[in-house]
Amino acid sequence: MLDLECNMIMLVGPMKGGIRYHPEVDPDEVNALAQLMTWKSAVADIPYGGAKGGIGCNPGDLSKSELERLTRVFTQKIHDLIGVHTDVPAPDMGTNAQTMAWILDEYSKFHGHSPAVVTGKPIDLGGSLGREAATGRGVVFAAEALLAEHGKAIKGLTFAIQGFGNVGSWAAKLIHERGGKVIAVSDITGAVKNPNGIDIPELLRHKESTGSLKDFQGADSMDANELLVHKCDVLIPCALGGVLHRGNAADVKAKFIIEAANHPTDPEADEILAKKGVVVLPDIYANSGGVTVSYFEWVQNIQGFMWDEQQVNRTLQNYMTRAFHNIKNMCQTHDCNLRMGAFTLGVSRVARATLLRGWEA
Ligand SMILES: NC(=O)C1=CN([C@@H]2O[C@H](COP(=O)(O)OP(=O)(O)OC[C@H]3O[C@@H](n4cnc5c(N)ncnc54)[C@H](OP(=O)(O)O)[C@@H]3O)[C@@H](O)[C@H]2O)C=CC1
Ligand SMILES: O=C(O)CCC(=O)C(=O)O
Fold it and tell me: Minimum-distance ligand to the CA of 18?
């Protein structure tokens, strides 16, 4: 199944969002994810509408050459819909810089060389330094901003991380570097735990060489579902949507949840967690580091000028800190939680742009 959804008609700039390859991709989910991109871009204050694309497939079952052919055929079908100033794809679950390189190459056969038509591409093809790490790094900046509000810091706190792909592995690495104790990690093959803190660089090497978390010597294996209710200070879902639901929310022991995945908490779980006093940092803010650095990549491509990595990371931190304070202001003004504050900020920015364009009903 191939699907591409766009949620905003060029109100403030092109539409933007990732392309997902996963067996559970369906049009409703892609549409919902495109809507999240609209509010996410508005919260980050970057000039984009929302989009998302996906293919229902299991990339783990496909060879590299099958993935390339699939991506090229997909691009042949959507090349008239995407474009530097209309809709700019990026990686999401199951896709990566190589996928973006194939899209760029195939698109350029129809429209001429156009590096800015995708972001998250390899550096050698015009990708931005810092984009690969950006979502995980943004998650860490977001966590630091939230924890500081509560008089805490990453150092010394315990973390459980679901998902060890692009977002989860970068978040784990950066938390480990800051002195946080990552005590549980999972991927699709299972989960591992170590109450003294997992050696994340070692786990990265193990995952890189074996392709899974299984048989890692530095930690005990655990039930992957148990990870979400494991005793820790901070839980970071970095995989699928809907993983926190009424069946497990009451058992969550973390005091903070940083939503690095898109839509990991369903509305029933949200209510249960709020009653328990768990502080949830919403996805449309917490994982916005990826699209923010995608914006920097697009700007660099259009300018034909490459930023150094320090500039990318510093500017990302400024964007994440500014957005956190804007959300907090909304929460204070409307006496609401962080999710409502983030949505109020995003929706009000989109509404203002709509009115200014004269599109009111
Ligand atoms: N990439 C980006 O820039 C952004 C991503 N996001 C969101 O972050 C989340 C992760 O994306 P990303 O890291 O890019 O995706 P990846 O495909 O790189 O990684 C996904 C990870 O989730 C694991 N996983 C899949 N299913 C399960 C499961 N049932 N239980 C536990 N782990 C599972 C995978 O396991 P395995 O390694 O074994 O395959 C993998 O480690 C998604 O929700 C995505 O929408 C949000 C903003 C930007
Ligand atoms: O980098 C991008 O453009 C989009 C990233 C994405 O898909 C997301 O934030 O969910």
Answer: 2
